[in-house]
């Protein structure tokens, strides 16, 4: 059993990956590294990076790979990520997978598991509709949602194949209560010998 874990959580928008990611990371005592959250925090703080990505995010497009990968490299180089981390929203295409492989390879590391949250399209659209009302996210407009769904299907879904070939994908049924889904994820990770801290 290892005491740390290098994880990635993937799923379409509205799959609940943000919520589950936080719970899983807490259980393992590792930080969540969410590129969407990093971008949103920079927009809120009015940084140069924030100004660079505002229009891109509002349109539902992807921030350029080099920029995104540089930010992730920086974040993963911080002390609290030395023994593990949970990536949410990165990598999002095969170019970013290559960037991450290169970075982890330099450190002699690999991802331990990729949690794929499976949620039917109608269910995720309904959750997004609620999120738009509750959180008022600037990129939860119908147009941006449709754009992100297209990008997910065309660019992000292929990364699952890449990781599946490495035998590290755990496909988790993402429908059910919050607790039930968290338990399914914990069980899948335990089956890989990944031990939770709590
Ligand atoms: P998320 O919170 O993961 O839904 O991300 C919100 C938005 O941030 C996306 O629609 C993109 O505009 C941008 N973004 C987040 N992660 C990435 C990434 N890995 N590559 C490029 N753009 C990203």
From TrEMBL:
Catalysed reaction(s) here are: AMP + ATP = 2 ADP
Q: Where is this region: NMP?
A: 34-63
Domain of life here? Answer: Bacteria
InterPro entries in the record = Adenylat/UMP-CMP_kin, Adenylat_kinase_CS, P-loop_NTPase
EC number annotated for this UniProt entry:
2.7.4.3
Can you say where in the cell this protein is located?
Cytoplasm
Q: Which Pfam families match?
A: ADK
Pathway connected to this protein: Purine metabolism; AMP biosynthesis via salvage pathway; AMP from ADP: step 1/1
> Which UniProt keyword terms apply here?
ATP-binding, Cytoplasm, Kinase, Nucleotide biosynthesis, Nucleotide-binding, Transferase
Q: Where does ATP bind?
A: 14-19, 131, 176
Kindly indicate whether the keyword Mitochondrion belongs to this entry. no
Q: What class of enzyme is it?
A: transferase
The GO terms this record gives for MF are: AMP kinase activity
Q: Which residues bind AMP?
A: 35, 40, 61-63, 89-92, 96, 137, 148
Tell me the PANTHER family matching this sequence: NUCLEOTIDE KINASE
Q: How does it assemble?
A: Monomer.
The similarity annotation says: Belongs to the adenylate kinase family.
Question: What exactly does this protein do?
Answer: Catalyzes the reversible transfer of the terminal phosphate group between ATP and AMP. Plays an important role in cellular energy homeostasis and in adenine nucleotide metabolism.
Domain statement: Consists of three domains, a large central CORE domain and two small peripheral domains, NMPbind and LID, which undergo movements during catalysis. The LID domain closes over the site of phosphoryl transfer upon ATP binding. Assembling and dissambling the active center during each catalytic cycle provides an effective means to prevent ATP hydrolysis.
Name the record gives this protein: Adenylate kinase
Q: Which organism is it from?
A: Microbacterium istanbulense
